Description:
Helix content: 55-70%
Structural class: alpha+beta
Shape: elongated
Low-confidence stretches: 1-43, 58-65
Largest sheet: 5 strands, mixed
Strand order of the largest sheet: 2-3-5-1-4
Number of domains: 2
Strand content: 15-25%
Amino acid sequence: MKKSFFSAIGVLALFAVxxxxxxxxxxxxxxxxxxxxxxxxxxxxxxxDMMAVESESAYMDRSLVSPIDDGxxxxxxxxxxxxxxxxxxxxxxxxxxxxxxxxxxxxxxGSVDDSEVTRYDTSYNGYLTVRVPSEQFETAMxxxxxxxxxxxxxxxxxxxxxxxxxxxxxxxxTMKAEEQQYLEILDQAVTVEEILQVTDYLNAVRQExxxxxxxxxxxxxxxxxxxxxxTLTEDESIAVAKESWRPIGTIKDALSDWVVxxxxxxxxxxxxxxxxxxVILVLWGVWVWVRKSGKKHKN
Length: 299
């Protein structure tokens, strides 16, 4: 009887110890879990906001890009094409043709950005950079060729920058959203360190926004206005030859050359006097010796 009693007490004691150990493990696990959750909840909201800005910016960069094919065509987007041309024209009169091109450019709604006329021997050459609205590109090319006696060369190019343009627009939208989020975080910043860090991020984003906006504006100007480079040449002209003839200048040049010649001749004489006398003495000595030798043979 006593033996059964003590056995029962032993089993109960072991069961009590088991419950105690399990209970300690449960409470310890609960405390650790609670501590972890508290750490995640009570962490710096400022740091989490900064991480959210970066992750959201990366997501927007991926989501705003439109599908692009191999030719640079972007579906559902207005195509951005930069058109340029290059013409080499042989004309009757270069200077007259330059004036005509300037007038024509204004009629097309454009302008002549650069103009240069140079004279080469008995003819003139002209170089112009013409900017015209893109819708007037074909009209301008045809009209310019009509000025020529013949066309030396003609080149046209169409550069589709739609893919690059759309990508830059997407990045600009992302950066503007990022700027707004940084402004909201700046309102929540408390310490000086946090304020300075957010301000640095904000300044960097604004610089990128300004740079990207400027690049987009440049692309817009290149797309809206086409550039045509024109080279003009002409035949040799008698009139240009007459313009280049200056008889008085020729007389002055001849007199100047004559003075230079005399100076050279005098300089040569001086050098002969200074450096030539040893040779003269040797030649004189040889001549004397030859004469004396000839007299002896006669005698």
